[in-house]
């Protein structure tokens, strides 16, 4: 066989094989590689987006915690103010009730003293009338008058 013919046949077969590979084999391989590269790029983009979302979520969580602490502080301050107000109102009400009770007790004491004085006056008047009646019934005698007055003194004490 002729070396030149073999060489030319091999070159022709090589070009046919190259053309066949470029026409039918190479496009699916390139398509699969492009799809794989697109999936990898999408995965990397999703990872970057997830990382950004995580950072944003962390910032929001920190902000919400700060707001919750402030809100809790406000609620606590409001509760303390309300507690102090309730305590002050209770003290004022207690002082008012004590003052009313004191005034009522003083009024009752004054009324009782007035009644006692009135009763004492009535008793003194009765005793004076009784003493005068006894004096008038007995004969007029200085010694008898002195005894009656002494008796009257003892009754008054």
Description:
By secondary structure, the protein is mostly helical. Helices cover 96% and strands 0% of the residues. Helix 1 (3-137) runs antiparallel to helix 2 (142-156). The relative contact order is 0.03.
Question: Helices and strands in order, then pairings?
Answer:
Layout lengths: L2 H135 L4 H15 L1
Shape: rod-shaped
Main sheet: strands, sense, barrel: none
Q: What count of helical segments does DSSP give?
A: 2
Radius of gyration: 62 Å
Main location: membrane
Subcellular location: Cell membrane; Endomembrane system
Protein name: ATP synthase subunit b
InterPro entries: ATP_synth_b/b'su_bac/chlpt, ATP_synth_F0_bsu_bac, ATP_synthase_B_chain
List keywords for this structure.
single chain, 157 residues, mainly alpha, 2 helices, 96% helix, ATP_synth_b/b'su_bac/chlpt, ATP synthase subunit b, coiled coil
Brief overview:
InterPro entries: ATP_synth_b/b'su_bac/chlpt, ATP_synth_F0_bsu_bac, ATP_synthase_B_chain. It is a single-pass membrane protein. The protein has 2 helices and no strands.
């Amino acid at each position: 066989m002729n070396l030149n013919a073999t060489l030319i046949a091999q070159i022709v077969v090589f070009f046919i094989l190259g053309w066949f590979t470029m026409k039918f084999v190479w496009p699916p391989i390139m398509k699969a590689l492009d799809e794989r590269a697109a999936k990898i790029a999408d995965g990397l983009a999703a990872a970057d987006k997830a990382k950004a979302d995580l950072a944003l979520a962390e910032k929001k969580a920190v902000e919400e915690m700060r707001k919750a602490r402030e809100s809790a502080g406000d609620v606590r301050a409001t509760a303390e103010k309300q507690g102090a107000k309730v305590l002050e109102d209770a003290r004022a009400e207690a002082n008012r009730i004590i003052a009313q009770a004191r005034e009522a007790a003083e009024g009752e004491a004054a009324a009782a003293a007035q009644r006692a004085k009135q009763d004492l006056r009535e008793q003194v008047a009765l005793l004076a009338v009784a003493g005068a009646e006894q004096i008038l019934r007995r004969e007029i005698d200085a010694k008898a008058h002195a005894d009656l007055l002494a008796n009257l003194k003892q009754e008054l004490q």
